[in-house]
Structures are given as structure tokens and as C-alpha cells.
Design a protein that fits this description.
The complex is a heterodimer of chains A (526) and B (317). Chain A has 526 residues and is an alpha+beta fold. Chain A is 28% helix and 23% strand. In chain A, the strands form six sheets. In chain A, strands 3, 10, 11, 12, 13, 14, 15, 16, 17, 18 and 19 form an eleven-stranded mixed sheet that branches. With 317 residues, chain B is mainly alpha-helical. The relative contact order of chain B is 0.15. Classes of the chains: A alpha+beta (526), B mainly alpha (317). Chains A and B meet through helix 7 and helix 13 of A and helix 2, helix 3, helix 7 and helix 13 of B.
């Protein structure tokens, strides 16, 4: 197990210097991989194409990972996860916290050559508020309107700190600004004509084969040096060629032979193979909250004591080691969120009670719960091996305290349907994507797998969401943590990393928290 | 011959109809929902339900089938839910790489199997025969993906003479196209060669034992003429059948080979459609595969007549 938030997996320093000989005479700022060549293209192999590129609609990481180089937001975050303006030149919040005024940057152009104006922002934010999860949470009833061509005003019904956080969110369902012409003709289905103001523009998408982005030559950067996602976003490469390569071994071999410069989602088992090769480097960042869900609608785990028994029995180090193959790719934390988010969401609640791994007490708790040997079906999916691998170990650990546990595995599409049916499982190992806002964690939703229903939670969330400052919200985060350990909607197993690898001439900047590589800051020395 | 061909073509219709019903039912009875794939794993149940409704997935399956059938008979197989194109277009686009791979693999297979199988039969029991049978045994035992990975490791990673994976049409860029095609064609072709080799050897052995070969030999026909003109031609039927069946399997998509070598063919299309529950594409690909299989079988039957004049089929055949 590791404790640092993120570190390089192991860079072969000698190999690095070796690659510098590549003879680049570019006059750009030298960096860790030699002289970046702004004329170079980055060839990137990713496992699957995104279902679409519309973050208003799609909740998948694949969508936001590609789309956030194309589409931009009013606000963004810097490397300390502080909110910074992006399409806005500046923003003001009224003393009552209900009115936000955004002054737009002047001269910003969309990829189709039209100018960004307040009307584009208003129509885009209206659609996003209506369709996206964060939009529905924080902006229902809010009004967006154009004061003049360069000024947008947002009126909230109640003040909330979450508004800024959601507007600066760079991850899934980020609030993208499209030209108003696209929004006014769009339906609730994903938008297919992806035009934004971002550093990259979409050139071509060949379904299931490749997606090509070119640097947007008309890009108008924000002031300031690059800092996290804030500041100057001018693309470091001439373009990115995404290749969709489902087979992990092919991705790794293609990286070794120079077919690709960058591969994402290296399977944990293949990471060692990458590290042995001096011409490659690998890095990882935490992004997955691996959770054990309890079916609270029916069956033995409707009883909180049975949930507590399981939570007490789990040996999380063994589970996470099996899940991700190598202790360097996981972190254990008492927080419902990622350990790497503890800067923004610090909490000590649960530190003493997290991961007790006490089988005797677990047996006692199980007996007290009234569990009488009913079969317990654990469901998992092999499409996310960390889910399956963890489930195998959990099954054994639960048998150890006398639970009659069996394991049912499904392919991912079937899994997503089975987990919504409380008659089909008792325990489920679900890899959840991290969220920038604890109020958006999916296990707090009554309509999500496991059927969390808790009036206490509803009260805490209402208080939390109406916090006007981050400090206030943080104090409610401690309340949420207390509820989490009291109610046990899920047992947090651990934070799992995503591993990526590049050739040594590629320099990657990884964002804070769980943001992963920042596309426009990636450079190639060729 | 024309009558027979027409009859056989008409007989395809009920087969296709039955397959379409079975597949439609299977697809819609399998758990999973394309709306969930479009919206992502953490979309709310209400949103998934609303999109399912808009996509028409909540209507009775029988009704959905009849609608599909109504369109399908006019040649309209609907649009993919993910690919932003029609199913017909998707199948047509992906059939090109698959056809290139199938033909290349078949060329590799025939080039290895027919000469080696014939020679092995001619010198039965010789070291050459033992070698050929050994090669065949290994070829049948090694799955194509294992061979593919070994070839990648040796030729692409080790010697760096060929690319690891990818696709380029040989029509657009013949040299690059062939470089990409070579490894998958060998890995797929070698495995097929193992099967064809055994068929060829057995067929040639059969013919070699027949009276007319003995008679020809006694008349003083040279060995090479005997082997390649008399024997191989007469041994052609089972070989053509085997080649035909193999080709049928190949054009319906070499799923694993296409995945390893990242070839955007019919196999990849099918796998991706299953993963995403892209119902229209799934239905379309299976219908296409069925039709391809049936047509190849029919073509093989018709080729029999060309290979063997004794069974040249009449209108009453």
C-alpha cells in the first residue's frame, strides 16, 4: 500500500537522457523529455471509443477525457484545485451568494470561426443545467441570462458553494460551452457536431477506429502561465491521433515498437512489462473508488448489523492487492472520496474505525444481525478486472466468518442491469469514478444500485448543498462521513489507480485530484 | 443449372427468416441496454428509462421485430445507435478489411496446405509426410491468437520488420496495407492450413489408391503429371469444400485475430456491438454473416460442377 497521493511509477533516468539525443532543434522550452516539438503529433492508443463527445449527456470518463480538449468551461481549476476563470475573464459573487456575474474573455473564437458571446454561454448552461447530473443538483430553478454580449448573470434560488465547484469541474459532465446555433438545434440526444473554443478541434472520427484532433490555430488563450488546467492552454502538440485499440497486449506492444506514443489503461499485470523496457515510462493516478455495495432493499444486508459484520471482516490490503496486482497502485483511506482529494476534502472521521479486519468481532456482529446462513450472491464484472479480483478475495474472507457466499460474474452491460435489480444480488463490487463533489457520489442516490434510503442523509445533503462557503461544506462533509460509517451504504475498499505509459520522448502533466493527463499540456520531442 | 441456382437461392429465404427471428429474440432477451451505454454507467435510472422510451426499446419485442422486418425487406436495416451511420454502411465499411484478411489468409493457407498435403500423400510414411503431419498437428493445436502474439513478438517487437497492429486498405496504399495484413494473414492462414493440409492429404491418398490411377501409372504416365493432373484434380472436391467452409467462416469475421491486430472488420464490429448492445448493428451483422455463409456454401456447391464433370448439375438436380 502506498500513502503518497501520486508518484511516478519508476522512471529510468538513464533511458530518459538517452532519448534526448533525438536531435530536436526546436527552440521551445526544454522539459523533462527534451525539447518539445510543437509540430509533432501525439499518437495515443485508448481501449475504446467514447459513446459520444457530449458531456451534457454522457457520464463516462471516455467522453470527458477526449472532449475536455475540445470544449471549454466558464471556470476551471489550477494545480491546487482552486477555482480559476477560463472562458470568463473574471467572475463576481454577490454578498448573498445568489448572483454570479461572469465577464467573458474578449475575442474568443469557436472552431467554426464564430465569436463566443453571452448568448452561447446562456444556451449551453441552460441545456447542461437541465440534462447533466451536477446541473440538476445545483442549478435546478437557477436562471442564466445575458446582460450584454460579454456578460452573463446567473441567479440561484439558494446560495451554494457547489455552484462554483460544478462550473469548474473538469471531469465527467463538465459544463461545456457550445455555439448557441448548435444548442438551439440540439435535442436531448448527444450532440454530434462537436464545436468548442478549446485548444484542439475535432477533425475526423472514424467509428471504432480513430479520432483525430488538430491544434486550433485560432485559439485565444487565457492570461497566465499554464497552472493545472488554468492559464494558457495552447496545445503542446500539433494534434492528437486517438487510436481505439481494445486489446491491452496490443497497446503495450504497439508502444514498445513506437506505433503509439501514449497508451491509456495499461492493465495492472502489464505494468511490470512496461517498466522493464528502458524506452518506456509509466505513471499512474488514482481515479477509481472501489466499493462493496450492500443490497439494502432486501435480504440480510437490509440490516445494518450484517453490513457492519462484513465491513469488519474485510482485509482491505489483501483485497486491493488482488484487485490491482501491485500495492503501488492502490491507497487505503477512511474518506469516502479519494485520498488524493484530501487537500480539498480533508476528514479524520472514520480514521479509527476504517478497515478493522477483526474476524472474531465480525462473527459476533453477524450472529447479532440475525443472519442464519442464507445464500449471499456477490456480483462482479470481469470487464473491470479489479472488480472481479476483489470479489474473489471478498468471497473467501466472508466464507471465513460463516457467510454462505457465492460469486456471479457478468459482462459489463449485463452487470449494469443486474445491479439495478435488488432480487438478483446481496453484495456487488462496483468500481465508481471519483467525483469532485461528495454530494455526487453515486451510492448516496436512492435510484442507484443498493437502494440507499436514509432521511438522515437527505437532511445532511440538504445542509451540505446549501453551504455558502467551502469551509461550511467541509464541516458537512464530516457529517456525511459520520453518516457513512453509521449507515454503511457501501464498504469502501480502496482507491485504485489508472496506469498509463508513454515513450520516453513524451512529457505528460497529470492534473491534481483524479484528473489524469492534461491533453493540451502533453508534449512530444521528436 | 440456372434452375437449380434459382431454387437454391429461393431456399435461402426461409433460412434467413428463421435466423432473423431467433437473433432478434436473443438480442432483446439478453440483459443490458444501449441507453445505459449511451448515457454512461452512472446515469440516473430515470434518464436511462427516458432514453429507452425515446429509442423505442420499451415496446413489445414482437412489434419491434415486425417494424424491423418491414424495413429490412426494403433493404433498410436501420441506423447504428453509436456509429453515426446506417447498419448497411457499417457492414459494408467493415466487410472490406475482413475480405482483405480472409483472402490473404486463404492464400497463405492454400499455398501451404495443397502442395505440402499432396506431397505428403505421394510419399506417405516418408520423413516429409511425418513433418507435414507434425506441422499440421501443431497448427491445429495452437490457437490463432497465440500464433499471432508469437509472430508479433518475433517479427514486430523483436525484429521490427512489420507493424504490431493496425489497418490500411491495400487499395489505398498497397505497400502499407500489405505490411499490416501480413501478420494477421499468416497467423490466421497457418491455422487454417493445418486443417486444409489434412483434408488434402486424405483426399489425395484416396485418389492415389484408386484403380484409374494405377491404370494410368501402368500406361506410363509420368509421376508428376499423374500427381498434379490426374490425382489432384480428382481430389479437388473435398478440398474445395474445405476451402469454401473455411472462407465462409473467415468472411463472417475472425473475431480474435481482428481484435489482436486491431483490424476494423466484421468481427470487431460484432464484438463492439455486443459490448454496447447496439441492437440494429448486432442484428445486421448476424444477418450479413448468415447470408455470407449461405452464399459461400451455394457457391461451393456450384463449383463442384466445374471441378468434377460427373456431378455437373442439371435442371433436375
Amino acid at each position: 500500500m502506498r500513502t503518497s497521493t501520486r508518484r511516478s511509477v519508476a522512471l529510468a533516468a538513464t533511458a530518459l537522457t538517452g532519448v534526448l539525443v533525438a536531435g530536436c532543434s526546436s527552440d521551445t522550452t526544454p522539459d523533462g523529455a527534451g525539447s518539445a516539438n510543437p509540430a509533432a503529433r501525439l499518437i495515443m492508443a485508448i481501449p475504446a471509443q467514447p459513446p459520444n463527445l457530449d458531456p451534457d449527456v454522457s457520464t463516462t470518463t471516455a467522453t470527458s477525457d477526449v472532449a475536455n480538449g475540445i470544449l471549454e468551461t466558464l471556470l476551471t481549476t489550477d494545480e491546487k484545485q482552486q477555482v480559476r476563470p477560463m472562458l470568463a475573464a473574471k467572475y463576481d459573487v454577490s454578498p448573498d451568494g445568489k448572483t454570479y456575474t461572469f465577464d467573458l474573455r474578449k475575442g474568443v473564437k469557436f472552431h467554426d470561426g464564430t465569436d463566443l458571446d453571452a448568448n452561447d454561454v446562456v444556451t449551453s448552461m441552460d441545456r447542461w443545467s437541465r440534462l447533466s447530473g451536477p446541473g440538476q443538483t445545483y442549478f435546478t430553478g437557477a436562471t442564466w441570462r445575458a446582460v450584454d454580449d460579454d456578460t452573463v448573470r446567473l441567479d440561484l434560488t439558494t446560495p451554494t458553494f457547489g455552484a462554483l465547484l460544478a462550473l469548474a469541474n473538469p471531469n465527467e459532465q463538465f459544463p461545456a460551452v457550445y455555439p448557441s446555433e448548435i444548442i438551439t438545434t440540439a435535442t436531448d440526444e448527444p450532440i454530434t457536431k462537436i464545436v468548442g473554443t478549446g485548444p484542439f478541434q475535432l477533425r475526423e472520427w472514424i467509428p471504432d477506429q480513430s479520432l483525430t484532433l488538430d491544434r486550433f490555430d485560432g485559439y485565444v488563450p487565457a492570461d497566465g502561465e499554464p497552472n493545472g488546467r488554468a492559464g494558457n492552454r495552447t496545445a503542446g502538440v500539433a494534434g492528437i491521433d486517438f487510436k481505439f485499440v481494445p486489446d491491452a497486449a496490443t497497446r503495450v506492444l504497439g508502444l514498445q515498437t513506437g506505433e503509439y506514443d501514449f497508451i491509456s489503461e495499461v492493465p495492472y499485470d502489464n505494468a511490470a512489462q512496461v517498466l522493464e523496457d528502458d524506452s518506456l515510462k509509466a505513471d499512474s493516478y488514482p481515479v477509481t473508488l472501489l466499493n462493496l455495495y450492500y443490497n439494502k432493499a432486501q435480504g440480510p444486508f437490509a440490516d445494518v448489523n450484517a453490513r457492519r459484520a462484513v465491513d469488519t471482516a474485510l482485509d482491505r490490503d489483501a483485497i486491493m492487492t488482488a484487485a490491482v496486482s501491485d500495492p503501488q497502485f492502490y491507497t487505503l483511506t477512511n474518506s469516502m472520496m479519494l485520498e488524493s482529494q484530501s487537500g480539498l476534502w480533508p476528514t479524520a472521521v472514520g480514521k479509527d474505525t476504517f478497515n478493522p479486519h477483526d474476524t472474531d468481532r465480525a462473527r459476533q456482529l453477524l450472529a447479532d444481525s440475525g443472519y442464519r446462513g442464507a445464500p449471499v450472491r456477490i456480483i462482479a464484472t470481469r470487464d473491470y478486472l479489479e472488480s472481479y479480483n476483489a470479489a474473489v478475495v471478498i468471497q473467501e474472507q466472508l466464507k471465513g466468518i460463516g457467510v454462505d457466499a457465492s460469486l456471479d460474474t457478468y459482462d459489463w452491460p449485463t452487470f449494469t442491469e443486474v445491479r439495478d435489480d435488488p432480487t438478483k444480488w446481496e453484495l456487488a463490487v462496483i468500481p465508481n469514478t471519483a467525483k469532485s463533489d461528495p454530494g455526487s457520489l453515486v451510492f448516496t442516490r436512492p435510484d442507484f444500485a443498493g437502494s440507499t434510503k436514509s432521511p438522515q442523509l437527505d437532511a445532511i445533503l440538504a445542509e451540505y448543498r446549501s453551504s455558502t462557503t467551502l469551509e461550511q461544506a467541509r464541516s458537512h462533509y464530516d457529517d456525511l462521513q459520520r453518516w457513512f460509517y453509521d449507515y454503511l451504504p457501501v464498504s469502501k475498499l480502496g482507491d485504485a489507480d489508472t496506469v498509463f505509459a508513454t515513450t520516453t520522448n513524451v512529457d505528460v502533466v497529470v492534473g491534481p485530484g483524479f484528473e489524469g493527463p492534461i491533453s493540451w499540456r502533453t508534449t512530444v520531442a521528436k | 443449372m440456372l434452375n437449380y441456382t434459382l431454387k437454391r437461392l429461393l431456399a435461402l429465404i426461409p433460412v434467413l427468416a428463421v435466423v432473423s427471428v431467433v437473433i432478434f429474440a436473443l438480442i432483446h432477451l439478453t440483459p443490458g441496454n444501449p441507453a445505459r451505454a449511451i448515457l454512461g454507467p452512472e446515469a440516473s435510472a430515470a434518464d436511462v428509462e427516458a432514453l429507452s422510451e425515446r429509442l423505442g426499446l420499451n415496446r413489445p419485442v414482437a412489434l419491434q421485430y415486425l417494424e424491423w422486418l418491414g424495413r429490412a425487406v426494403t433493404g433498410n436495416f436501420g441506423d447504428s445507435l453509436f456509429l453515426r451511420k446506417s447498419v448497411t454502411q457499417a457492414v459494408a465499411d467493415n466487410a472490406v478489411p475482413t475480405a482483405q484478411l480472409a483472402i490473404a489468409a486463404l492464400v497463405v493457407a492454400v499455398a501451404i496446405a495443397v502442395p505440402l498435403g499432396t506431397l505428403a500423400a505421394r510419399w506417405r510414411g516418408s520423413p516429409l509426410d511425418a513433418l507435414a503431419m507434425g506441422v499440421s498437428l501443431v497448427g491445429m493445436a495452437v490457437p490463432s491468437f497465440v500464433l499471432g502474439l508469437i509472430l508479433i513478438l518475433v517479427l514486430a517487437v523483436g525484429l521490427r520488420v512489420l507493424p504490431v497492429a493496425g489497418y490500411e486498405s491495400v487499395f489505398d496504399d498497397p505497400v502499407r496495407g500489405l505490411r499490416y495484413l501480413l501478420l494477421p494473414a499468416i497467423s490466421l492462414g497457418a491455422v487454417l492450413a493445418a486443417f486444409l493440409l489434412r483434408t488434402t492429404r486424405a483426399a489425395v491418398l484416396d485418389v492415389l489408391a484408386s484403380d484409374y490411377i494405377q491404370a494410368a501409372r501402368s500406361r506410363g504416365v509420368t509421376e508428376s503429371r499423374l500427381l498434379f493432373r490426374h490425382t489432384l484434380r480428382n481430389a479437388g472436391l473435398p478440398i474445395v469444400t474445405a476451402v469454401g467452409l473455411t472462407f465462409g467462416a473467415l468472411i463472417t469475421g475472425a473475431v480474435v485475430t481482428e481484435t489482436i491486430f486491431n483490424i476494423p472488420g466484421i468481427g470487431s464490429l460484432l464484438v463492439n456491438a455486443i459490448k454496447r448492445r447496439d441492437y440494429p448493428v448486432l442484428q445486421g451483422v448476424v444477418m450479413f454473416a448468415t447470408l455470407a455463409y449461405l452464399v459461400v456454401n451455394l457457391a461451393v456447391d456450384l463449383v463442384y460442377g466445374l471441378v468434377d464433370p460427373r456431378i455437373r448439375l442439371s435442371g433436375n438436380g
